[in-house]
User: Which sequence fits this backbone?
């Protein structure tokens, strides 16, 4: 029996791709083999995943499908009578993309419609957060369960840098956001916050927004660059396209606060990464973000940037306040990492 995993796309830096790699690694420890397949695979990532056209599915193989958007993958899988397991990562609401990318907006709308087809043809279903599970329950999925994302932070512990020995400087704010350059992530609001911060506290700060931008959504990236120019933030605000993990690690080390304005998240792995790298997390309360943070970090309910700037300034000025945030984040991260297990997936594979 092979356990094959499928998704619409595979890109080494994104959360679903990382999850598939971790599941494959954990299943291998249980002596299960299998491959990762996707409709879209970057040529540089083809040592990790193959295109679905190369998939060879035998009668006893188990199919694990990671769903987040419409693609040809679902139709491909439906032709097989094999046991099928859904892992639901959420579908971003289409309205975020309508002003920028109508095709992508259509794929999101179809992706949500696909859930009704999946419900009728898949034997088992998991969601990576309670927020996502609530959607499945609302759509009539029976006996769905939470299957927490497996976060492999061991990869960060390799190399010369180590957060346990390196003391992070909080002298000048170095804000960071990691996530796709996309309208639902609201990098435009991060830029508006930077303007407020500069007008209140001066220009001794930086804001870096790190993420891949879909070429079809270039108009949103153009909008962001125009804002940076018009608001005279070229020196302080930088957009960095996706980098490899060693550079990402370096950027996490160089930053001292993680700030998220995102308005839709099915989980948001970078929040956990920021905790791992000892960055206080300040995030807009939307989607699964409150659930991911638990009692850690700072959530804000409204985008009042003047009030938010004052709250964030306290983190930099008040060591006790900052340390209390970091302590709660460490507690939350430890609790979450202990909650992950491959056992729920193994149970349905063997059933």
Assistant:
């Amino acid at each position: 029996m092979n356990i094959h995993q499928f998704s619409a796309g595979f890109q080494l830096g994104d959360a679903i791709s990382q999850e598939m790699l971790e599941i494959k690694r954990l299943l291998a420890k249980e002596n299960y083999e299998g491959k990762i397949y996707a409709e879209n695979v970057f040529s540089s990532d083809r040592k990790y995943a193959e295109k679905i056209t190369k998939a060879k599915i035998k009668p006893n193989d188990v199919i694990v499908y990671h769903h987040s958007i419409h693609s040809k993958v679902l139709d491909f899988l439906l032709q097989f009578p094999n046991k099928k397991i859904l892992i639901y990562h959420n579908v971003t609401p289409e309205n975020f993309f309508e002003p920028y990318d109508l095709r992508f907006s259509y794929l999101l709308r179809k992706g949500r419609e696909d859930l009704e087809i999946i419900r009728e043809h898949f034997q088992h279903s998991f969601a990576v957060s309670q927020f996502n599970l609530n959607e499945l329950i609302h759509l009539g999925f029976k006996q769905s369960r939470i299957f927490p994302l497996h976060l492999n932070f061991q990869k960060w512990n390799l190399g010369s840098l180590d957060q346990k020995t390196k003391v992070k400087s909080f002298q000048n704010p170095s804000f960071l956001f990691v996530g796709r350059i996309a309208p639902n992530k609201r990098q435009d609001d991060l830029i508006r916050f930077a303007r407020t911060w500069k007008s209140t506290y001066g220009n001794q700060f930086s804001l870096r927004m790190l993420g891949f931008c879909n070429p079809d959504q270039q108009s949103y990236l153009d909008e962001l660059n125009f804002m940076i120019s018009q608001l005279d933030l070229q020196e302080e605000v930088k957009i960095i396209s996706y980098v490899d993990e060693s550079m990402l690690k370096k950027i996490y080390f160089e930053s001292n606060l993680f700030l998220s304005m995102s308005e839709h998240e099915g989980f948001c792995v970078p929040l956990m990464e920021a905790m791992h790298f000892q960055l206080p997390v300040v995030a807009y309360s939307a989607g699964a973000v409150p659930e991911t943070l638990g009692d850690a970090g700072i959530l804000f309910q409204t985008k009042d940037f003047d009030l938010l700037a004052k709250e964030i300034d306290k983190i930099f000025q008040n060591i006790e306040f900052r340390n209390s945030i970091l302590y709660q984040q460490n507690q939350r991260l430890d609790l979450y990492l202990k909650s992950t297990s491959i056992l729920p997936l193994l149970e349905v594979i063997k059933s």
In short: Residues 92 and 108 are 7 Å apart (CA to CA).
